Amino acid sequence: MTYEGVGNAELLDQQAARESNARTYPRHLPFAIDEARGVEVTDMDGDTYYDCLAGAGTLALGHNHPVVVEAMESALEQDRPIHTLDITTPTKEAFVDSLLESLPDDFSETAKVQFCGPAGTDAIEAALKLVKTATGNDDVLAFRGAYHGMTNGALSMMGDTHAKEGLSNLMPGVQHLPYPYEYRSPFGSAGDADGALAAEYVERLLDDPGRGFTDPAGLFVELVQGEGGAVPAPDAWTREIRRITRERDIPMVVDEIQTGLGRTGETYAFEHADVTPDAVTLSKAVGGGLPLAVVVYDESLDVWEPGAHAGTFRGNQLAMAAGEATIDYVLENDLDEHADAMGALLREEYLEPLAERFDAVGDVRGRGLMLGVEFVDADADADSAGARPADDDLADRVRTEAFERGLVVELGGRGGSTARFLPPLVVDREQTTDIGQIFTEAVEAAVNAEGSA
Q: If you classify domain 68-332 with CATH, what class do you get?
């Protein structure tokens, strides 16, 4: 069948009839994409949108960036292999060159690279196996609000309990620690703006002989919780967690699957706190928009046997070509600094003023071009820490109003009450201004509609 001239409605109906009930985005973003370039996508009805979802942060350079397209075309024209398992090629070696160049010297100089299956969750599973093998321990430390993927081990470390309902075979031994979420502090009225209480809790727990679990194999952390609602960790807390784990020989694994490669205003999120992790999981942006996942880790952990971790599609050569081009472009054009500047423009000129105008905007937060706006019930009483109950219905209306005005944003956070911004890092000042104005109009319309209901 040819789909030329077919509209959104027909394709959406066909998709609903043929695809799994587990599909997500089409339920809230009811369009079929026909063309895409840069920060914009055009649907089958001819309507154009700013894409602030961008493959859940995968498209660092946006859709069909010339350097990515050229890299893939060049690989195909030269008859490079498409798939090699873990057999090396010039394409693969060039990718690793760029990957290691992107990392701080004190990490990359002693680093090993493990190619995994093609998704970020595969990198998490590999990292779990890595630290358990290296330490001989089984229990792992994760955080409330965390999201690391949907495979068994990754899902077991997830903070959201809704996704775990009805599942009885999750990985045992996961200890969920308090994350320093300033707006909804796990310590209530005591607050925890700098994460000092959360860090002290972790240290006291690990030193307690009655803690209830054995020595951990590793600690897994996002330094900006992505699906958790764009919640950034304070740098002071990150440094304390690094000290605590190092003093106790607990490998610290930083999940940079969504934060990595410039999104937070540094090439990698752990650089904000000037710490060196033991391992980093990467996917999304490092594949240039194509499926690719790796774990980069200190050589001291490299004790597993040949074949201990494999994966058929760890040899995705087109993704390596696209990834090399993307990494090089990000570094050569200082896109981390650009992301910081555009994020500041969006946040300071548009998002934070919304919080000043509307009680229903409870919190604005994030780093670089990884931002979140949390919506709350303006008529409800605040808790002891000053936070009102989350309002996912209002957040859903904002998403719909934004979509109808030509802006794609998704929701995350506790109860899906946070609108999240993950635009391509190449978004320019004019586009950022348009995005801010459209979102402002969407919030105004959604709040006013709620007030008149």
A: alpha beta
